[in-house]
UniProtKB/TrEMBL annotation:
Cited InterPro entries: Ribosomal_bL20 (IPR005813), Ribosomal_protein_bL20_C (IPR035566)
Highest taxon, organism lineage: Eukaryota
Disordered: region residues: 94-137
Keywords noted in UniProt: Ribonucleoprotein, Ribosomal protein
Pfam families for this protein: Ribosomal_L20
Name the record gives this protein: Uncharacterized protein
GO MF term set: rRNA binding; structural constituent of ribosome
Length: 137
């Protein structure tokens, strides 16, 4: 019987993986639909989602894609809300000091990421892009 249980578990895992991939394919479709809707109103997907997050609107991608398809007036209202948030975010950020702060200095002996001004964890293998740094599980 242990062999049968193992086969059942493998089938369960296989079905779970198929569901994960299916959801990923749907997610790509939702993102492209939202992107098309945002471009229609002279915005981009990333700016729209970022502005929605700053305003505190908590709608998932599936709901947003349904709004694009079936409720264009509601989606237009969300675009307007995102534009207002984006403009206020831009005004606030233009008054602040340059990234990250004018008085910010890295700790002594720390490496900085070549493209970004952020401290990279130390690793014996160099930059930790795509890998976990040493000492972390």
């Amino acid at each position: 019987m242990p062999g049968l249980r193992r086969l059942q578990r493998m089938k369960e895992l296989n079905l779970a993986l198929k569901e994960k991939y299916r959801h990923r394919e749907h997610k790509d479709g939702w993102i492209s639909t939202i992107g098309i809707g945002a471009k229609y109103y002279n915005s981009t997907y990333s700016r729209f989602i970022s502005a929605l997050r700053t305003t505190g609107v908590r709608l998932d991608r599936r709901t947003l894609s349904l709004l694009v398809s079936h409720e264009p007036a509601s989606f237009r209202a969300l675009i307007g809300l995102a534009e207002v948030a984006q403009q206020s975010k831009f005004k606030e950020s233009s008054l602040e000091a340059p990234f990250p702060r004018a008085d910010w200095h890295p700790p002594p002996g720390a490496k900085l990421h070549p493209k970004e001004r952020r401290v990279v964890p130390r690793s014996s293998k160099g930059w930790t892009r795509g890998r976990k740094p040493d000492g972390l599980l």
